[in-house]
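Can anyone check this?
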Amino acid sequence: MQALQTLIDGREFPSDSVLVRHEREVMADHMQRMRGIRNAADRRVYLEGVERSQGKAWRDALAAEYAADWEKRKGVEK
């Protein structure tokens, strides 16, 4: 049986679903943009835009993903 993946909006789909792949691609695009923003104020503005266009769940997921990525990169840069 195919493993299920829970999307940010709470729906579940098979891991190899087009929707799962699309969500990963959208998150990767957002992460690339967030990494390119050099100050916290501009990142907050970006996150506000994500919330307006994609909803609070997306905003929260992106913020959490970026925070985890930042912590990981911070450890490498030291």
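Reply from J.R.: I decoded it. The longest helix spans residues 56-77.
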